[in-house]
Design brief:
Helices cover 52% and strands 18% of the residues. By secondary structure, it is α+β, with helices and mostly antiparallel strands. It folds into three domains: 163 residues, Beta-Lactamase (2-Layer Sandwich); 67 residues, Signal transduction histidine kinase, dimerisation/phosphotransfer (DHp) domain (Helix Hairpins); 168 residues, 2-Layer Sandwich (Heat Shock Protein 90).
Length: 487
């Protein structure tokens, strides 16, 4: 069975919590046990000293085996919870704290090993049953009772039942275990809920990725409430999804547009060719239709070349964009190639170029294509007899080029779309057999590859395209004065 990251993380966290509690519990157990033993030791020694002082006083009076001594020991034992007895110097028990008349301990002889240790060490302390003297385990503390002449009159034994000691410790341990289990349960529940919360966007991402693989780019992840790494990831994923959906939409539109653009000339070519082959077109008209076939074939070639140029531009060498050339000279030379078309439309040309060279950085070939496409577009849609204005200047560390024509106004809602592939703001372009509908798209792609911008305005029939280029270092001192040239 495949285990999820959530499951592994939950198990690891639970194991870590468990280990921490076990280590903490063991530490608390040992420290608590040592604390309780130390506290009880001090209590037993204090009681033993008190009994010894009392026994020393009674030794010279009524004697250690008197009923009064026994009752006083019983009172002390009742207040401390200990069992007390006194033996003589030979180890025979002479009195105890038992309240019953017949004590099971009075008259009994303590083991010789216990007495030898007492005489040797001067005191006794151990968790023991005194070699069978007690049925159960007791924590035993014994101190000598001094006689008046400096001899030992006997020994006072203060004993605390081990069952009571461990009962107290067991109760404490039980409380700790209950609290620890409660805290562990709360921590595990919190970790489970937190892991589920963290796993939700990841699971949604996995599901969305599977939908992307099936071609469904509409999948999105639910907004994440917190601004942390997961929130940033979900926002980035949704942004990526939006971009993928847009790209897919553009791809489908591009394929549809390319199919349409290819189908139109191919249909014309096929129709004209069939007409020539089956004799539908008379021989006197053959040249006319052969010219139409040639024109449509050239249009297909231009479309294919343009698409290949766009592909090469996207994969181009960045080093090409760092070359330096004179923008004013490029504009002038490109303008000369349109001289015949300008004359046919009876147009005038106003060139506003700087007197000195205006050096810019970029790929000269592709940027010449930008100027060519903008001039071609302006001349194509300018009204006959109007003026075409081209201006070049520098401002705020950049070079600017503006191409202005007078003709039809581009609708405001169409302005953001005119740089899209095959978009035709002017429907009359569909009848233009020379164009392929990719000129302005290529302009934007080339300038984007150079990290530059292009702007367009169209009001009252005056349309202006303006684009920027980066100035070359050697060209920053060039003069920005312009001179008018009229053709």
């Amino acid at each position: 069975m495949k285990k999820s990251v959530f499951y592994r993380n939950f198990m690891v966290t639970t194991a870590m919590f468990t280990v921490c509690f076990v280590v903490f519990g063991a530490t608390m157990f040992l420290m608590g046990r040592a604390f309780l033993i130390r506290e009880k030791q001090e209590s037993l020694y204090a009681t033993a000293e008190e009994v010894c002082r009392y026994a020393e006083a009674m030794h010279t009076g009524q004697g250690l085996s008197s009923w009064e001594t026994r009752m006083n020991l019983a009172a002390i034992a009742q207040s401390t919870g200990d069992h007390i007895f006194i033996c003589d110097s030979d180890g025979k028990v002479v009195t105890s704290s038992d309240r019953s008349a017949s004590s099971p301990y009075i008259g009994r002889q303590l083991p010789q090993s216990v007495m030898d240790r007492l005489r040797r060490d001067g005191s006794y302390e151990e968790l023991t049953n005194l070699d069978g003297f007690y049925e159960g385990m007791y924590y035993v503390v014994a101190e000598p009772i001094a006689a008046g002449d400096g001899a030992v009159a006997g020994y006072a034994f203060v004993n605390y039942a081990g069952s009571g000691f461990f009962g107290v410790w067991g109760g404490f341990l039980m409380v700790f275990v209950i609290i620890a289990m409660g805290v562990l349960a709360v921590a595990v529940a919190f970790e489970y809920a937190n892991d589920r919360r963290l796993a939700r966007p990841l699971n949604e991402m996995a599901e969305a990725a599977h939908r992307f693989a099936r071609g469904d780019y509409s999948a999105r992840i639910s907004p994440y409430p917190e601004e942390d790494e997961i929130g940033t990831l979900t926002q980035a994923f949704n942004t990526m999804a939006d971009s993928l959906e847009r790209n897919e939409s553009r791809r489908r539109e591009f394929i549809a547009n390319v199919s349409h653009e290819l189908r139109t000339p191919m249909t014309s070519i096929a129709g004209f060719a069939d007409g020539l082959l089956d004799g539908t077109i008379p021989q006197s008209e053959e040249k006319k239709y052969l010219q139409a076939i040639s024109s449509e074939t050239k249009r297909l070639g231009r479309l294919v070349r343009t698409m290949l140029d766009m592909s090469r531009l996207q994969d181009g060498d960045p080093a090409l964009r760092e070359r330096t050339f004179d923008l004013a000279e490029t504009v002038l030379q490109t303008m000369l190639s349109f001289e015949e078309r300008v004359d046919k439309k009876n147009m005038t040309v106003d060139l506003n170029l700087p007197e000195d060279a205006l050096l810019v950085r970029g790929d000269p070939d592709s940027l010449t294509r930008v100027v060519y496409n903008l001039l071609d577009n302006a001349i194509k849609f300018a009204a006959p007899g109007t003026a075409l204005t081209v201006s070049v200047w520098k401002e705020n560390g950049k070079a600017y080029t503006a191409v202005q024509d007078v003709g039809r106004t581009i609708p405001r809602e169409e302005l953001p779309l005119i740089f899209d592939r095959f978009h035709k703001a002017d429907r009359s372009r569909s009848q233009d057999r020379e164009g392929v509908g990719l000129g302005l798209y290529m302009v934007r792609q080339i300038l984007s590859a150079h990290d530059q911008d292009i702007f367009v305005t169209s009001e009252n029939g005056v349309t202006v395209f303006t684009f920027t280029l980066a100035l070359a270092e050697t060209g920053r001192g060039a003069k920005s004065e312009t001179a008018g040239r009229t053709k």
